[in-house]
Specification:
Low-confidence stretches: none
Organism: Litorivita pollutaquae
Number of domains: 1
Helix content: over 70%
Pfam families: MotA_ExbB
Keywords: Cell membrane, Membrane, Protein transport, Transmembrane, Transmembrane helix, Transport
Subcellular location: Cell membrane; Membrane
Number of helices: 7
Radius of gyration: 28 Å
Distance between the termini: 84 Å
Protein name: MotA/TolQ/ExbB proton channel family protein
């Protein structure tokens, strides 16, 4: 089975030329990066709640420091800086996916332009005796690179959007939990104060 895949891959590279070879390398790199980031996200518990990983450890340290009587503002700034470092570490590698998602379709289009130039040069050299089937075959081969670029770019872009959304959701959950430690039940106190203010006005 691996031999068949390698043979087909070699045929595609031979058909599309060096541009397709580069796009195949991009696809392998993108898949490896996606699997790596998925494992990191699973390990750190990146999602809508704080269950494990660096964020839970940071919140536990903040809770312990609060119990020890640490200064609130200094502790908040230090915790935010620590969390920023953690989120930067978790998000490392996503820039690579962004680059692949943007460059792959452009590289495919570049390969198509080169193929079209070669096809029309062949048509010019043949003069009026050119076979339309040969020209159509050259154009078809040229369009392979555009299709390959889109095949690489679309799943990469979808994976990048999914990773970004999970990081944003997790960061909001962590920051909300952090602020809850410094201002616990602030909304509950405000809601409780509003009915009392309304009763005083009626009185």
């Amino acid at each position: 089975m691996i031999g068949d895949v390698s043979e087909r891959l070699g045929a595609i590279i031979a058909l599309g030329g060096p541009v397709v070879a580069i796009l195949v390398g991009f696809s392998v790199l993108s898949m490896a990066c996606i699997l790596w980031k998925a494992a990191v996200f699973a390990k750190e518990g990146i999602g809508g709640s704080v269950t494990r990983g660096f964020s839970r450890e940071a919140l536990a340290q903040v809770r312990a420091a609060r119990s020890a009587g640490a200064e609130c503002e200094e502790l908040r700034l230090r915790a935010q800086a620590h969390l920023d470092v953690g989120f930067a570490r978790v998000g490392a590698g996503l820039r690579l996916l962004d680059v692949i998602a943007q460059v792959a379709p452009l590289l495919g289009l570049f390969g198509t332009v080169l193929g079209m130039i070669d096809a029309f040069r062949t048509l010019q050299e043949a003069g009026g005796t050119a076979d339309p089937a040969i020209l159509a075959g050259g154009i078809w081969v040229a369009l392979v690179t555009t299709a390959a670029g889109l095949v690489v770019a679309m799943p990469t872009s979808m994976a990048l959007s999914w990773f970004d959304a999970r990081i944003d959701r997790h960061e909001r959950a962590v920051m909300d939990a952090l602020e809850e430690m410094f201002t616990p039940d602030v909304f509950a106190r405000r809601d409780a104060a509003q009915p009392q203010a309304g009763q005083a006005a009626h009185a």
